[in-house]
Every structure is written in structure tokens, then in C-alpha cells.
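Chapter review: from sequence to fold.
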Amino acid sequence: MNAQTHYTVIGAGHGGKAMAAHLALMGFRVALWNRTFEHIEVIKMRGGVDLDSSESAQRGFGEIPLVTSNMAEAIEEAEMIMVVLPSSAHADVAKIMAPHLRNGQIVVLHPGRTCGALEFEKVLGENGCTADVTIAEAETFIYASRSDGPAQARIFRVKEAVPLAALPATRTAAVLKKIHAAFPQFIDGVNVLHTGLNNMGAIFHPALTLLNAGWIEATHGDYQFYIDGVTPSVARVLEVLDRERVTVASALGLRARTAIEWLELAYNTTGEDLHEAIHNQPGYYGIKAPNTLKHRYIFEDVPMSLVPIASLGQRFGVSVRGMDSIIRLACFVHRTDYWRRGRTVEKLGISELTVSELTRYVNEGTRE
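The C-alpha cell string follows.
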């Protein structure tokens, strides 16, 4: 048993089960929390999760001594708290966690999407948390994984380099030092604005789903999401959204990766434009579309990814008409107001900050 760090994994979905089992197989003591006990009852009865993978080090039975729906119990001994949930659940989890956190604990959002750490810290404060806790977020989820049963999970791939940043950034080095015994793949993500504005899911997922809404509903997703769905016209819309994202980052003094740069970095794929680059990515072939429009590509990625980027753009004078169009289409399709439900600068409590004040806050933790 690795005595260095006690981990608690929050969330027992595809990613949470895989992470908890993998940490256990690496020798760490692990606790697993899920709000609905019925979803983890079999794991508790069996005492852990069976993990499968092509890598032998990621195969076997991961023993999890504590499996619970009681948050106080789950995080009592935790040094690292790994939140592996849809970002739409971050605020609720922060509220549940607030009374039970203690000084020195580290909470990592896997991933934060956009402004996740800012939201989490604000909700903790609003719910009376006075503990000196470090909130950090990953730019993307470290695994490609899935749940294979009530107490089974499978890891397809572990990403080689995942940017991570703490709030404030002066604490990033300490978080990386703590997490590297388990996950050396995490690298310095600069700050939480940088990780949040390099959120490629915000660009690809909602627009690609909504612009193919008719096809998704007619075929229940029986087509290739990226290969058939990204036509030249759809790619041009994605390019507009991507330019807006990069411009918002620039307005905040950040150099965000373009979608084409990201495809080259992540997959060694290039092209004259986004349409060509996507079609040159072998990994996209065979990936089916969502089988319904009631999918996290809309109900998570719009309010938790697109809305905060667009809201930052509006606050700092960047035209985000493309993003606003996609957000409004999502509102129409789901008959809801994602602007109201999403992470706006007002809801995050940063609407009055200037660029320099916001930068100082995410870098140093001080704010006016």
C-alpha cells in the first residue's frame, strides 16, 4: 500500500470508476463517493472495481476500502480529492463538500471545462467554507475510459501530457508535486484562465451536434460524428467559433492554441483548414454521433464551456456573435435559458474585475 497520499474520487461514472481503480492498483489508499448509493452498492459489496486495459499495470482488481454516499466520511482522511463528474455538477458538489473540508486539502476538477475552479471556489465561500483548500483543474480528462458494468471499468488510453493549474497559480507547483507520484502526465497549465480557454470541447461539441440536429434525430446518431458531420460549411462555423475563443484569450493576455494547432499537438494531424485537418485524423473515423440531442455535448458544454467564454468576451469587448448563435440554438432546442444557467462573469463574481485584476486573482489569489 502506498502510504504517501490518500485519495478520494468524487463520482462513480465512466471516469471516476477507472480513476479509483487505477489509483488503487498503483498502491494508493482510495475512497469513492457517489451521490446515489445505489450506483455504488455493488462496488461496496465487492470491495472495489475490476479494471481492464491493454496495459498490464492498469489491469486487475482495484481494492477500494471506503465506498460511500456520505461526503463527510468520504473526504475525512483525503489529501487529494479528485472530482470526476460532469462540470454541470461542480457547483452542487462544492455545496455538499463545503462544511467538511479542512486546511491543506487539494481538490482537482477533472476537467474544469471553463472557469470551473473559479465557480468551485466561489460556491465554497458562499456556503461557509473557511478552510485553506487549494482548488485546481485539469484542461482535459486524463483517460479515455468507460464503465463496463456496475463494478467494472476499462481504460483505453492515458493521455501523455495534461495541463493542470491551481487557483491561484502560485500553488500549481505544490499540486503537481503531490499528484506526480500517481500521475506524472500532469504539466503546468499556466493558470485556470489558460486551462479554461484551451477547452476544445467548447468549440467542437455543441456546434457539431446542433448543426447536425436533423441527422441525429433521423438516424439516432448512426453516422460518423466528425467525418460525416464536419462538412465544409460546418467546418467554417467551427473556425469562426475558434477564432472568437482565441481572441477572447488574447483580450485576457493569453495565447490560446488554435483548433488546428491542437489537432497537430494531440494527434499529429495537419491540414490546410479545419475541415481537412479533421478528416486527416484517423482516430475520428468510426466515432458515431450522439444518439440523442439530450446529450452532455449540449447540456454540459454549452453552459459550462461556451457561455463562460462568450461572457468573458462580452465583458472585455470581443465580438462573440458566433458563440451567441450556438448558445441560442441550444436554448431553442432544449427549451431552456443556458445564458441564465451558465457560468457567466456575473455568476462567477468577476464581472467588476479589470483584465489586470482578473489576472492577478488567478495568478496570485489577490483581488480588489
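Two observations follow directly from the output. The radius of gyration is 20 Å. The first strand starts at residue 2 and ends at 10.
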